[in-house]
Design goal:
37% of the residues lie in helices and 12% in strands. The protein is of the alpha+beta class. Helix 3 packs across helix 4 and helix 4 runs antiparallel to helix 5.
Length: 223
């Protein structure tokens, strides 16, 4: 399952990336690219299905492969560890009371579920984070300076003709303590570099917001 921005100006991402980002780069809310219909056998037997199993069947396709079945079931069990009674309002009309959670608010279920998902991935997120090599400098570097930089030479010992500047105007990324003005250089690498991945595989990894801004511009320009 991929999640798209409701502003329709950002690349689709998986559940984990959407959860980490909060908002898409274009400031839109993330929304599933499609709505999953429950199988008829689930609907027909809904009264006899265990709550945890029912929740799992509803949510699993929206999560995709970001959690194992066992991990997702444990998150669900912790999420719905309070009563959720179905109260009759009048004939044929019932109300599902969602406000019996820890803060006595209807959003306890959704907020608790997402918090537990975030808690599960926070220890591994930085481990799997895909980051581009970065050269920090207080002033702008030209091609010759980039090629002679020790960090760059350790990554890609290539000729002057194989590297090109992607963006003449810097991509601006504001942090709480500083502002980054980033320029990206593009160059070929071969499969012998153990830290390299195919460009088509980048979307499989969570990436820093600055890299996401670059990827949005790169995809828009090339695809």
């Amino acid at each position: 399952m991929k999640y798209i921005s409701l502003n329709h100006n950002s690349q689709p991402v998986n559940f984990k990336t959407a959860l980490i980002n909060g908002l898409a780069p274009d400031k839109g809310l993330y929304f599933p690219e499609k709505i999953i219909n429950l199988p008829k056998k689930i609907i027909d037997n809904i009264k006899t299905i265990d709550d945890t199993e029912l929740c799992y069947e509803v949510i699993k396709d929206y999560i995709g492969n970001d959690f194992t079945e066992d991990e997702l079931i444990k998150i669900i069990q912790k999420t719905i560890d309070f009563k959720i009674p179905l109260k009759k309002v009048e004939n044929s009309i019932f109300s599902l009371e969602l406000f019996h959670g820890p803060t006595l608010a209807f959003k306890d279920i959704g907020a608790k579920f997402l918090a537990l998902c975030m808690d599960k991935i926070k220890n591994g997120i930085w481990k799997n984070l895909f980051q581009f090599p970065m050269i920090e400098s207080k002033k702008e570097l030209n091609k010759t300076q980039v090629l002679s930089n020790e960090i760059f030479k350790s990554i890609a010992p290539i000729s002057n003709s194989d590297i090109r500047l992607f963006n003449s105007r810097p991509i601006i990324h504001k942090l709480s303590h500083k502002t980054i003005y980033a320029k990206f250089w593009i160059f070929p690498v071969d499969g012998s570099n153990s830290n390299s991945i195919k460009f088509s595989d980048v979307n499989k990894y969570p990436v820093p917001r600055l890299i996401e801004k670059f990827l949005d511009k790169f995809n828009y320009k090339h695809f």
